[in-house]
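$ ./design --mode recover --in tokens.txt
reading tokens...
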């Protein structure tokens, strides 16, 4: 058997180095710190906050950085804390038992290699921007929980994704911070010679070199390619600098490093995947690398690219995530080949044939090239991420299948879901464990399990919801005060943040990427009506968060208009914008809001997952019937706005804004504030239970990964 140099030995060495710095009773913290399983194991986070909660936050909740920088006296003091040592032993035993469980094969031929441009595993690993990456991180965690043989492949962005700062006018400014790889929970993979493993990809006129880093996500290894090497020139080093870099040529080079370089990195480590899962079109060039390898392995006449892709098709599955054009990038041929031409040539492939398979119309010579057509053509299956999205994707990609009716276009769907242990707050997890029983999370896709929510007393369920809302209010009071000071607001206005929000008020959240089709502006469509909703005796408060892409001035204008209208409403502490929304604050935000808004212009929401996270915590969704909510809403578990498509967007916006205000005024607020003699909203909790019963089993990652395994990974095998 060929020896694999997959980073496991390098990880062991890094753990040993950190352990030598720790007092002996704390040595288990070393290996715990190097595996993100701690982040979803009950009690895992508390191990570090118990030592020094403030410094753990300053370390970006990165346990490796935290332990390397913690004062020796604090570590020695912690090593004598019997309560901490007992909890450390419990967490270590739980994690060790989880990591030692027997694994399960998904594919007879080898592991599934899950390729994605971003992974939202934890806030301390800033290689994600939003929903796509968070979903990818949730998938890696869930396949770990199910002990499936999957490996992740992505890029290590040294400057991650943008940080956001709003100025006094509400205009978004961006900045980036470079990560210190020496203190990441990651190790550089080394080869047989002891030197860092090195792969190269022809890009522009040179050879882009990259090293490979290993991150442990529970049982699931995540490999990240990194072009920050001294042998690369400054342009080449910038390829892995920032996620979704504005330069189109840089993005092409990123996709080459991800797709072509990712396959070569797995080869170099001795990992032979049985299936490549392309999560969005960015890594589609992996199919060309496999086609080139197939060609070199075959003897006889040279085969055309279409035939090579056909031979390799059984090794690829493709998930498309967006019907928005920006999510399906295309490039003019000159630009495409100026970056990737040498790579195509060196792989022994024809530029004309690559152009043909990358166009919707392969006979066209003027149509731009795209990765989504290539990914669809190279894969044995293509799936959308909700039932509604399947319908939209079939219509969108129908031209790839001439003569085929829309209903017969070979695109299916696996509806997105979320990793329950990551997104359910400790408060709700403890409550449900009391009534569902131990180890219930492994069976969270069982509808019968969720029927036990009816056994939870009203007082217990309401107390849990109030506790989660209070945690959110405390976060908002702290963070928006800092936000206001940072953008130069008056001291009095910044001080007012300390009393912002009321833990007894109806709390409504809208947090997601600030793209125009998300229609944040609907909330402000009628400012006077919104003021009435906020200012009525029964209080309502709104929190908004999200980032616009640096080049999306339209989305930035939406945010700036919100700031202008917010000042005009004169309700500064009942309608707040939380800056720099990321995985640090998202769990508490989705847990603490009573109502979660989603207002996309149909049918542009492929799925969405933030509302699922709110639902797992007992929050209620008020959403347009698009994406996942078309499958989730049953009339009793939240509220819905019509999801019909209307070409008259102005009329649609007016109609949907009116529907939003009507629901908030006439249904949501009255139900929330109708209380029994004990101050408990009985009707509201009935809807909360209906939401948990219907949405919990359907939109947890257990169900999603089961669907991928049975319907995508093992389909036809």
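writing sequence...
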């Amino acid at each position: 058997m060929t020896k694999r140099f997959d980073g496991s030995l390098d990880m062991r060495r890094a753990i040993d180095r950190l352990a030598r710095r720790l007092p002996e009773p704390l040595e288990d913290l070393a290996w715990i710190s190097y595996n993100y399983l701690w982040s979803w194991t009950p009690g895992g986070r508390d191990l570090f906050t118990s030592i020094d909660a403030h410094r753990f936050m300053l370390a970006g909740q990165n346990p490796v950085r935290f332990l390397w920088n913690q004062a020796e006296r604090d570590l020695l003091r912690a090593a004598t804390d019997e309560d901490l040592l007992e909890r450390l032993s419990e967490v270590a035993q739980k994690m060790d038992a989880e990591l030692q469980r027997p694994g399960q094969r998904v594919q007879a031929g080898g592991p599934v290699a899950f390729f994605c441009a971003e992974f939202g595993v934890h806030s301390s690993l800033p290689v994600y921007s939003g929903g796509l990456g968070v979903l990818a991180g949730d998938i890696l965690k869930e396949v770990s929980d199910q002990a499936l043989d999957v490996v992740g492949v992505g890029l290590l962005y040294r400057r991650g994704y943008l940080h956001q700062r709003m100025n006094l006018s509400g205009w978004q400014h961006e900045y980036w911070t470079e990560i210190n790889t020496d203190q990441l929970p990651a190790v550089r993979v080394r080869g047989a010679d002891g030197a860092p493993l090195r792969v190269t990809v022809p890009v522009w006129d040179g050879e882009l070199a990259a090293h490979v880093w290993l991150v442990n996500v529970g049982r699931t290894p995540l490999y990240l390619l990194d072009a920050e090497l001294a042998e690369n020139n400054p342009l080449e080093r910038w390829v892995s600098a920032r996620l979704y870099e504005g330069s189109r040529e840089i993005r092409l080079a990123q996709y080459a490093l991800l797709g072509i370089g990712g396959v070569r990195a797995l080869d170099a480590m001795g990992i032979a995947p049985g299936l490549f899962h392309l999560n969005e079109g960015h890594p589609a060039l992996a199919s060309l690398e496999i086609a080139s390898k197939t060609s070199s392995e075959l003897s006889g006449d040279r085969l055309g690219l279409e035939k090579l892709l056909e031979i390799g098709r059984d090794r690829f599955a493709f998930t498309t995530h967006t019907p928005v054009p920006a999510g399906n990038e295309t490039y003019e041929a000159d630009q495409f080949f100026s970056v990737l031409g040498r790579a195509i040539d060196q792989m022994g492939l024809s530029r004309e044939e690559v152009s043909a398979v990358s166009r919707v119309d392969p006979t066209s010579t003027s149509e731009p090239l795209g990765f989504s057509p290539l990914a669809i053509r190279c894969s044995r299956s293509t799936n959308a991420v909700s039932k509604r999205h399947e319908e939209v994707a079939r219509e969108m990609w129908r031209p790839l299948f001439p003569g085929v009716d829309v209903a017969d276009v070979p695109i299916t769907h696996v509806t997105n879901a979320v990793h329950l242990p990551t997104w359910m707050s400790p408060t709700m997890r403890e409550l449900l464990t009391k009534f569902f029983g131990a180890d219930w999370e492994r069976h969270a896709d069982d509808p019968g399990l969720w029927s036990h929510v009816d056994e939870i007393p009203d007082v217990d369920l309401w107390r849990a919801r109030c506790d989660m809302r209070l945690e959110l209010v405390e976060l908002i009071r702290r963070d928006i005060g800092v936000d206001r000071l940072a953008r130069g607001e008056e001291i009095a206005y910044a001080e007012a943040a300390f009393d912002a929000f009321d833990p007894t008020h109806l709390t409504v959240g809208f947090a997601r990427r600030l793209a125009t089709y998300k229609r944040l502006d609907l909330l402000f469509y009628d400012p006077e009506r919104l003021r009435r909703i906020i200012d009525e005796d029964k209080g309502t408060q709104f929190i908004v968060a999200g980032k616009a892409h640096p080049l999306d001035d339209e989305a930035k204008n939406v945010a700036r208009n919100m700031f202008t209208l917010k000042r005009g409403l004169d309700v500064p502490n009942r309608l707040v914008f939380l800056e720099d929304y990321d995985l640090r604050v998202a769990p508490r935000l989705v847990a603490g809001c009573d109502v979660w808004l989603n207002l996309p212009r149909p049918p542009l929401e492929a799925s969405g997952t933030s509302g699922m996270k709110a639902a797992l915590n007992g929050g209620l969704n008020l959403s347009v019937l698009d994406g996942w909510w078309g499958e989730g809403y049953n009339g009793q578990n939240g509220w819905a706005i019509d999801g019909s498509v209307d070409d008259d967007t102005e009329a649609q916006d007016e109609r949907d804004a009116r529907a939003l205000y009507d629901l908030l005024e006439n249904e949501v607020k009255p139900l929330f504030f109708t209380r029994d003699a004990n101050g408990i909203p009985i009707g509201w909790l009935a809807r909360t239970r209906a939401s948990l019963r219907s949405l919990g089993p359907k939109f947890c990652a257990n169900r999603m990964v089961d669907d991928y395994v049975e319907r995508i990974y093992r389909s036809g095998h």
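exit 0
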